[in-house]
């Protein structure tokens, strides 16, 4: 299997995997920051990652959109109000984090603008 990927910089990357490996259907990366009594996880995925999460993982609706350093941030709240996701939109990829509970209206759930 050959994966033709786009790096966050927009550069092209080709990865060849042995044919006896399971098929790769999606490529994502994650990073977790933890310390003291808190922890935050971020997932990096291709464009469409946020829409997939708020349609199939935690069905919900967009509750806010705003710009941070010229990039769009989209906040969605799950219909059951059990979780919210905030996603920084890149040209080729998205950086998403998940919060417990409702978005809180406006940008209050994201620490402001």
Which terms summarize this structure?
mainly beta; 6-stranded antiparallel β-sheet; 8% helix; 113 residues; two-stranded antiparallel ribbon; globular; single chain
- In percent, how helical is the residue content? under 10%
Order of helices and strands: EEEEHEEEE
Structural class: mainly beta
Shape: globular
Question: What Rg, in angstroms, do the CA atoms define?
Answer: 16 Å
Number of strand segments: 8
Main sheet: strands, sense, barrel: 6 strands, antiparallel
Number of helices: 1
> In order across it, which strands form the biggest sheet?
3-4-8-7-6-5
Residue-averaged pLDDT: 81
The poorly predicted ranges are 107-113
Distance between the termini: 43 Å
Instruction: Tell me the fraction of residues in β-strands, as a range.
Output: over 45%
The count of domains is 1
Can you offer a commentary on this structure?
The protein has one helix and eight strands; from the N terminus they run ββββαββββ. The chain has one helix at 49-57, and strands at residues 2-6, 12-16, 29-35, 38-46, 60-68, 71-78, 83-89, 93-100. β3 (29-35) and β4 (38-46) form a beta hairpin. The chain has one domain (27-110). The strands form two sheets. The protein has a six-stranded antiparallel β-sheet with strand order 3-4-8-7-6-5, covered by helices on one side. Helices cover 8% and strands 51% of the residues. It is mostly beta strands and 113 residues long.
């Amino acid at each position: 299997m050959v994966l033709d990927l786009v790096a966050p910089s927009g550069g092209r990357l080709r990865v060849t995997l042995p044919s006896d490996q399971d098929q790769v259907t999606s490529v994502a990366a994650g990073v977790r920051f933890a310390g003291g009594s808190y922890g935050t996880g971020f997932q990096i995925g291709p464009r469409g990652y946020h829409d997939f999460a708020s349609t199939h993982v935690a069905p919900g609706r967009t509750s806010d959109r705003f710009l941070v350093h010229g990039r769009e941030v989209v906040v969605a709240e799950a219909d059951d109000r059990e979780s919210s996701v905030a996603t920084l939109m890149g040209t080729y990829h998205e950086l998403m984090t998940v919060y417990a509970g409702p978005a809180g209206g406006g940008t209050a759930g994201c620490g402001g603008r």
